[in-house]
Amino acid sequence: MPSKGRLGLVLAGGAGALTLLATGCSIGGEGSLVSGGSDTAVTITPANGTAQVKPDGTIEVKASGAKLENVTVKGEGAAVTGKFGEGRKTWRSTRTMTPGTAYTVTAQARDDGKTRTVTSSFTTLKPSGTLSIVDVTPSVTGEKVGVGMPIFVRFDRAVTDKAAVERALQVTPDKPVEGAWRWVGADQVVYRTKTYWQPHQTVRFHASLAGVNAGGGVYGAKDAQATLSIGAAQITTGDIGEHTMTVTRDGKKLRTVPFSAGNGQTREFTTTSGVHLLMEKDNPVTMTSPGRQEGDPGYYKEVVNYAVRFSNSGEYVHSAPWSLGSQGSANVSHGCLNVSPANAKWYYDIMQRGDVIKLTGSDREVEADNGWGQWQLSFDKWRAGSALT
Fold first, then answer.
1. 12, 236, 251, 335: least buried by Cβ within 10 Å?
2. 163-199 burial string, b = 16+ CB within 10 Å, else e?
């Protein structure tokens, strides 16, 4: 609504004279600064000295009787971009501003061979709450990840307006592929591609979050970015009933590895079928039976070497020298893929987070939310979890 009692400035000049004129101002509590000659006026909104400007508001520059040559916006927060309108008579910002920040807009217009410069300084409001990204996975400098790798983004609070926040998230691979975001909680969203990433490329993530109205009086605090380096396409395929898995890199076979999978006596001890992603590795890892105490039936505690994890339900590829006689012929483990020490070290050494391991042959399908089981969903089901569908 029009603000009351606020004055803008009009600088009008002709024949060497300079006159200050009072003007009524503007919309939504913002004002305008106008400068020009007898036939020229340049207007900037918000007006000079305006406070409490909404971070998701628009900066607008208009020129009458002249053509805008340049418009810059300077501030300590997000770099504000904009576009000129037809004939360069107008300029409008194309992104949001950082909350609680001072900005200065400088506009230059040319008329009759003369360049006129107009500035307006204002501050954006400090909201009752802000929203920040606290983690992007993967984002380890120098790490190469597999072609199945999703992008996990976690916020420092629950997001009320998920659609507004999701629109601020951008993923740009060197080799384009369709993808979509899916909200897996009030404070977490995950990006997955329709097909695997092309190998050997860079993927850039950028969140233009500063100033985004996230709902409930909360605005995005600042932008965030991360760079992913996609490595070789390493795909492991295994048949639990046949007790072997084959590892390929960029379509070429590297090795066939015999294993011993879960014994299947209980659901807990059944290795899951489906498309998994390699999540992490460690050497050594102490494995204990979940929900059991020492002395309980089925209790175990084992220290294993060269452990590569592929689910949250305790499934690993790891060294198991005690089951060499069963590897390639029988399933005797508690659910992991037991392999020889030599094969375990080899697999451990080449493993990348986000590499694909596809297993068949059991009646227990890995859940889509069990570790990084995102590829268990069809792409249509996946993108149904976007706030923009």
1. 251
2. ebbbebbebebeeeeebbbbbeeeeebbbbbeebbbb
pLDDT band at 289 (very low <50, low <70, confident <90, very high): confident
Residue 307 sits in which domain range? Answer: 234-376
Which residue in this structure is represented by tokens 């070497």? 305
Domain boundary at 70, 100, 123, which?
123
Contacts of 325 (CB under 8 A, 6+ apart): none
Is residue 383 one of the residues assigned to a domain?
no
Q: Are 212 and 241 part of one and the same domain? A: no
State both tokens at 231: 């490595």
Q: Supply 357's token pair.
A: 């391991």
Q: Known catalytic residues? A: 318, 336
pLDDT in tens, 188-231: 999 999 999 999 999 999 999 999 999 999 999 999 999 999 99
Q: Which of 389, 387, 1 is nearest to 215 (CA)?
A: 387
Residue appearing with tokens 């268990």? 376
**Reported pTM:** 0.86
What confidence category does residue 120 fall into, taking pLDDT thresholds of 50, 70 and 90?
Answer: very high
Whether 225 and 190 share a structural domain = yes
The number of folded domains in the chain is 3
